[in-house]
Write a structure and sequence with these properties.
By secondary structure, the protein is of the alpha/beta class. It has helices spanning 13-25, 65-75, 89-94, 96-118, 156-175, 197-206, 226-239, 256-270, 300-306, 314-327, 329-335, 339-349; strands at residues 3-8, 29-35, 55-59, 79-82, 126-132, 179-184, 186-188, 211-214, 220-225, 245-248, 253-255, 282-285. Helix 4 runs parallel beside helix 5 (156-175) and helix 6 packs parallel to helix 8. The relative contact order is 0.13. The structure holds nicotinamide-adenine-dinucleotide and thymidine-5'-diphosphate (TYD). The site of thymidine-5'-diphosphate has 12 residues, from helix 6 and strand 8.
Length: 351
């Protein structure tokens, strides 16, 4: 029997990779991509699958409880993979309330709607909430985040994601909703909006713009190729027991400044510029408020229980990513026009 799967935030960065994977791999599912199309949502990300018979797009706002309830009653989804969120830490510092409205209230609206239509009949149903490692706070120079690490969010973004995770667990524990949660480290890859570090640097190097390094560039992130995250989401959606949590990470820690220098070297080679050209664009700027020092994930539970492991090395993933940005200049031009210009000016030029 055909299953109806709702993917929220499918026009965004990670969501578009998950939608593509599910539409292509599971012709027996009908995939509904629900997205508000904020600045971060872009249907161009899904041009290659938009005409497939098992795909539909729904433009809706998860903050709108009535609209969400009506959609659940109309389509009677069997599964939900919830990625829609405000996702950028710097924006959460300037506008925390929007993060509460989408990330917390929007998640509760989806939980309520799923609970309402499933009415205690949870067989073959699943509500999968996609979260972040940032809910765990910041590590010192040693240790890794495990599924047992206590929550200690510092930014309005991570506080809103932590809150939504708590609601998902509360709906499992209180109403028996068949939920699962995963917390992933920093993703990189094609279709990432260029406000995030890696595509911002690629774009700025191309146009000889400054590379803004927050603080001393000593902060550490654990980078995972987005298609490996999508593969983990597929496995967890189909195989995880209800109520479980999985950490997903690349075992791939980089100090920001080292990563930016690496990007500079690869870009010099690709653009056939003399080596050292792009590094001259590096500028140390005022640090982000509340900037978490280090994130690093222990993903052994996912590896041991479900057999997941990353499919590419960081070098391979970065090559693929840079090649994608260099061969899709029109995508970058579209998403960096208009609203992005205003944001960029406020974030990097007026301050
Ligand atoms: P993104 O910002 O690229 O995309 C978010 C999508 O959600 C966009 O398409 C946007 O239009 C949509 N959206 C926003 N508000 C909405 C609303 N009110 N109603 C409906 N749609 C709305 O984000 P991303 O980087 O793809 O992240 C996706 C999810 O994965 C988020 O939940 C994020 O917290 C989580 N996550 C991201 C990373 C990362 O490195 N990017 C790492 C771990 C977890
Ligand atoms: P980002 O891509 O925003 O992801 P997150 O904050 O969710 O980890 O930032 C990654 C790291 O890069 C983070 O330590 C902040 C830093 N950073 C800069 O130094 N300069 C920038 O212009 C941006 C966007 C981020």
């Amino acid at each position: 029997m055909e299953k109806k799967i709702l993917i929220t935030g499918g026009a965004g960065f990670i969501g578009s990779h998950v939608v593509r994977l599910f539409v292509n791999k599971y012709p027996q599912y009908h995939i509904f991509n629900l997205d508000k199309l904020t600045y971060a949502g872009n249907l161009e990300n899904l041009r290659d699958i938009e005409d497939k018979p098992n795909y539909s797009f729904i433009r809706a706002d998860i903050q709108d409880n009535d609209a969400i309830m009506k959609l659940f009653v109309l389509h009677r989804f069997d599964g939900v993979i919830h990625l829609a969120a405000e996702s950028h830490v710097d924006r959460s510092i300037s506008n925390p309330l929007e993060f509460v409205m989408t990330n917390v209230v929007g998640t509760v609206n989806l939980l309520n709607a799923a609970r309402f239509i499933w009415k205690g009949n949870f067989e073959d149903k699943r509500f999968y909430h996609i979260s972040t490692d940032e809910v765990y706070g910041s590590l010192g120079s040693i240790g890794l985040f495990t599924e047992e690490t206590p929550y200690e969010p510092h930014s309005p973004y991570s506080a809103s994601k932590a809150s939504s995770d708590h609601f998902v667990r509360a709906y499992h524990d209180t109403y028996g909703l068949p939920t699962v949660i995963s917390n992933c480290s920093n993703n990189y890859g094609a279709y990432q909006f260029p406000e995030k570090l890696i595509p911002l640097c690629i774009n700025n190097i191309r146009f000889n713009l400054t590379l803004p390094v927050y603080g001393k560039g000593e902060n550490i992130r654990d980078w995972l190729w987005v298609e490996d995250h999508a593969a983990a989401i597929d496995l967890i959606f189909h195989r995880a027991p209800n109520g479980e949590t999985y950490n997903i990470g690349g075992n791939n820690e980089w100090k920001n400044i080292d990563l930016i220098r690496l990007l500079c070297r690869i870009m010099d080679r690709k653009l056939e510029r003399p080596s050292g050209t792009s590094e001259k664009l590096i500028a140390f700027v005022k640090d982000r408020a509340g900037h978490d020092l280090r994130y690093a994930i222990d993903s052994s539970k996912l590896q041991e229980q479900l057999g997941w492991k990353p499919s590419v090395t960081f070098e391979e993933g970065l090559e693929k990513t840079i090649d994608w940005y260099l061969s899709n200049p029109e995508w970058l031009a579209h998403v960096t026009s208009g609203e992005y210009q205003k944001y960029y000016e406020e974030q990097y030029i007026k301050r």
